[in-house]
Amino acid sequence: MSDKKRTDYPDDGVPEDALSPGALSPRSAKGRAERQAGQAARPENDLDAPSSGRAADHIRSAPAKRRSNWGGWLVSFFVAAGLGAAGVLAFQQWGPKPARETAEACLDRTLPDLIDTESQQLQVILVPLFNDVDDVQRLLVRSALEDFQGTDQPLMQLQMLDCSIAPDNTGMLQQLAKTRALSRDILRRTGADVLVWGEVSPDVQRLDLLTTYPVGVDRGLFDIDAISLPADFDADYAGLLAAKVWLSSDVTASLDTELIAAGMQNTVDLLSPMSENAATSWSEQQQGTLYHSIAGAGFLLGLQANDPQRMESALGNFRKASETFGRYNLSDDWVRVQNDMGVARSTFGKLTNRFQEIGLAIDAFRAALSETPRSRYPEKWSMIQSNLAEALNALGARQSDSQLLADSVTAYREVLKEQAPERFPQQWAAVQHNLGAALQSLGQRDNDPAILQASAVAYHAALEVRTAEDQPNAFAVTQINLGATLMALGTRQRSVETLREAAAAFSAALSQLERDTSPVEWGTAQHSLGNVLVAIGEQEEGTESLKLALTAFRSALDEFDRAKDPTRWAVTQNNLGNVLHMLGDREQDAAALTEAVVAYEAALGVLSESAPAYAESVVQSLARVQALQQSISKAE
Questions:
Q1: Residue-wise DSSP of 27-92
Q2: Closest to 526 measured CA to CA, from 570, 496, 559, 574
Q3: For a FRET experiment, which of 77, 143, 189, 534 has its CA 20 to 30 Å from that of 242?
Q4: What is the mean pLDDT of the chain?
Q5: Does 176 reside within a domain?
Q6: Is residue 422 situated within a structural domain?
Q7: Count of beta carbons in the 10 Å neighbourhood of residue 303
Q8: In the chain, what is the straight-line distance between the N-terminal and C-terminal CA atoms, in Å?
């Protein structure tokens, strides 16, 4: 999911039995070839190989001498063996050494060929697997991913990492920790999105795979997902694996729209038939992963198509995944599902105005937090806590509930205690922005200037990171919100200075927004700029600010479409009528008043049915402007 927010602490998330205790590091292809060549050059059993006919006849004709030669043969054998062992030791000590690279040297050699070159595909790197003889299982994984993505529109850019670290004597847990650290290093240095690694367990014929991927805007946190499959798995398991890799990274939801749709549809098409009759031989983890994958892909498809029914169906699969994993059986997977389901429910509730769904999202986030100790998993905890805070703010704003809004503020402030701006600046800035939004809602609800001032402080903190040069879009969004807070504060305090700061914030946002690429944000900024200029104009004697507001509203109407967004269009028409009304009154301009009447009537054409209470105020404004028209006409 484009915004699916989740993370594990960088050093957590890998089950202790991810590699079996007896696993060995992968052997080099060169070593295997040498061993195979040596075995082929010698008969299967040297001691039973037939000798020449003459020697054989001689042995058969003289059995007594054969006994005496047996002892000598043993002596010769042990002498030869001793000399051979000495030779081997000498060769190992002074002979040429086989190449044994360190991890750093191996990465320096191989990573330059793995630099990200195609940003509109999911970058996937497959590393050698422990105990994978002749790379058989890794090639099977590659085939599964290639089959999933098709050929017409490749979804992934697959790369094989030819890097086998020399084994050491520190034990498998240490090797696992090393591999985990290497996986993060590879992702950092290549800019890749997903790294697939793991081991083959030959005793139980099982393939234990892990996917490591960066999460968050800073790509500084890494999550690790695990999945176990049978060795030499079949097509159904291949589809499940490919879908899991495709859905693992947050990057999946930020690719080209058509690419996302193709991958998500492919996931649903592959896995839905399996979910209707899930294989009884599958483990709970595999079945839970199946439902979780279908849920994530289906919800995003429903979101893109604005299809509430499809989104609601996806929520059903999230519930199945949660029930299958179990809170205490597969707790890591269960927590991940609770978080993803919470994000989906919150999004669905906001889009459909089903407030109970946002409430259920809050419950899901709190359940996930109950199984995520803050002291052990601070980054993971703070990510889920941030999602909880956003849901509390969304529900509190819609229900005008001060307690929910205050809880949201408290939750965001707790998140900031766990995040350092030096380590994760973009993520820290995003939390500051969201804290500002929660404070803004609470300050407007309680009519408290002090809370609105705190909101402005949070937005300014976010803008220390979200600069126009580095993040123009994020800069513009924060400036729009800052402008709205300052406008609310300036209106309550009747401070022209604060209102001018708000106008400057909206203008700063417009300086970074392109109408073609960000039409909604551009139109919103124009509309908001018009509103604050009207507020300034009301406290001024001249008409300069009002004329600038007139231009801003007309620009907004150039973007707002009556058919697509009738309410926004009608409200802007009403505001345009207000400005024309004020200009006509101050300048005794009959033409401006006539335009005001046209704007009010246009607004009423929509609001009379969709917002009757709001429409009543427009009717009153229309009556006043018509009375003013008659007064001016009589004076002439």
A1: PPHHHHHHHHHHHHHS-S-GGGS---HHHHHHHHH-HHHHHHHHHHHHHHHHHHHHHHHHHHHHHH
A2: 559
A3: 189
A4: 81
A5: yes
A6: no
A7: 22
A8: 65
The residue range of the domain holding 574 is 560-636
Overall number of domains in the chain = 2
Q: Which two tokens stand for residue 353?
A: 């105005």
Positive or negative, the CA dihedral 132, 133, 135, 136 is: negative
d(CA 166, CA 82): 29
* 192 neighbors 125 (Cβ within 8 angstroms): yes
The number of helices, as runs of H, and strands, as runs of E, in the chain is: 23, 5
The domain boundary residue, chosen from 252, 270, 296: 252
User: Token pair for residue 85?
Assistant: 């062992």
Whose tokens are 């240490």? That residue is: 174
pLDDT tens, position by position, 456-469: 999 999 999 999 99
Each residue's pLDDT tens digit, 167-226: 544 444 455 566 677 788 888 888 888 999 888 888 888 999 999 888 877 777 788 888
Could you tell me the CA-to-CA distances from 100 to 31, 248, 307, 557 in Å, in that order? 11, 33, 56, 68
CATH number at residue 137: 3.40.50
Within a domain: 14? yes
The CA-based dihedral angle spanning residues 313, 316, 320, 321, taken in that order and rounded to the nearest 10 degrees: 70
Both tokens assigned to 479: 């400036």
How far is residue 76's CA from residue 360's CA, in Å, rounded to a whole number?
A: 83
How far is the C-alpha of 139 from the C-alpha of 200, rounded, in Å?
13
Cα–Cα distance measured from residue 425 to residue 90, given in angstroms and rounded to the nearest whole number: 57
Pairing of strands 156-160, 122-126: parallel
Tokens 């609770």 correspond to 338
Bridge partner list, 209: 198, 227
In a domain, 165, yes or no: yes
Q: Which of 180, 190, 81, 200 is nearest to 136 (CA)?
A: 200
Among residues 217, 252, 287, which one ends one of the domains?
252
Locate 293 and state its tokens: 């994958």
Three-point CA angle 601, 606, 610, nearest 5°: 135
DSSP assigned state of 235: H
Q: How many CB atoms lie within 10 A of CB 425?
A: 18
Distance (Å, whole) CA 603 – CA 114: 57
**Amino acid identity at 565:** D
pTM equals 0.77
Phi, psi angle pair for 130, to nearest 5° = -60, 140
Q: What is the pLDDT of residues 361-410, one digit of tens each?
A: 999 999 999 999 999 888 889 999 999 999 999 999 999 999 999 999 99
**Cα 194 to Cα 145: distance, rounded to the nearest angstrom:** 12
Determine phi and psi for 227, rounding to 5 degrees.
Answer: -150, 140
